[in-house]
Amino acid sequence: MNPKVITLGKRKVGLNHPPLIIAEMSGNHNQSLKRALQIVEAAARSGCDAIKLQTYTADTMTINCKRKEFFIKDKKSLWSGFYLYDLYKKAYTPWEWHKAIFKRCKELEIIGFSTPFDESAVDFLESLNVPAYKIASFENTHLPLIKRVAKTGKPLIISTGMATLNELKETVLTARKAGCKDIILLKCTSVYPALPKNANLLTIADLTNRFKCIAGISDHTNGISVSVASITLGARIIEKHFTLRRSDGGVDSEFSMEPLEMKTLVEESKKAFYALGKVYYGLTKEEQKSKRFRRSVFAVENIERGELFTKTNIRVIRPYHGLAPKYFQKILGKIASKKIKKGTPLKWDQITII
After folding, report:
1. How does pLDDT run across 205-222, given as a tens digit for each residue?
2. For domain 6-56+92-276, which architecture applies?
3. Positive or negative, the Cα torsion across 157, 163, 168, 170?
4. Which pTM value belongs to this model?
């Protein structure tokens, strides 16, 4: 059974529809509303279908505590050296900006929505009448939040990063029991940036089949290869972090797409989708003219009536105007029923069948 079509804003999402491309703004606004609006405009120009925000504050995410548990000491992390509270304070999108950002999305006819990180964020986003919700990988086991979002009845996109199969089953069951009918699961590797070898894209088809839902990818790798490849496995939503210029810095800039890269992703994703086509054998309409370049049996010497056909006077050559190559051996040793000039494609009426 194929999952049904889901409508996000004015856009339909499903296996028979081109992938929907989401530009994740995250903290790449660098605490400037002007820049945030510029990111929306750049995403629209790049051909993105949606802009996604993150709705939280430092206080809704954690507490202002300097204990070692709250410190990021992994030197390989982009956020090494931060206490969680300070990081979220730096990265969050002020709630008073949301209305202006969503207004600009509407003006540019792209979908504007967000990821809530607690129940108060859901209440706030409901007051702005967002068309859908996204659950981040780090919150996909936060069942109270899942339940609250599901009760809105709006489409729910869930990133699956780090979730075990049992955790994911529990998450989906919780959402469905709470009233969510439209669930989209995004394969995600929660590493920033992620490596292609850890993408495990085959999981996308399994998500579709196992949970009977539309699937996609939240892609943290650099470049577009992983995202484009995901389409062949059924991904119909692609989410990539987005910025104006990586050189401007920002909490997510290192693994974010720039406008020209995003434009390329949009274009190549559509090509990949349309290339899937259907199961089809034989000539397409466009291939009809190419058929003439196949091989067929021709007279390659002048042949007199009554003469035997041999490997010397007939050959399998291009173009395709004579009998198919499979008849070559059958024709050898037969008698010409009429005079045949060199370069003539062989037909059955030129051959005496004894």
Report:
1. 999 999 999 999 999 999
2. Alpha-Beta Barrel (3.20)
3. negative
4. 0.90
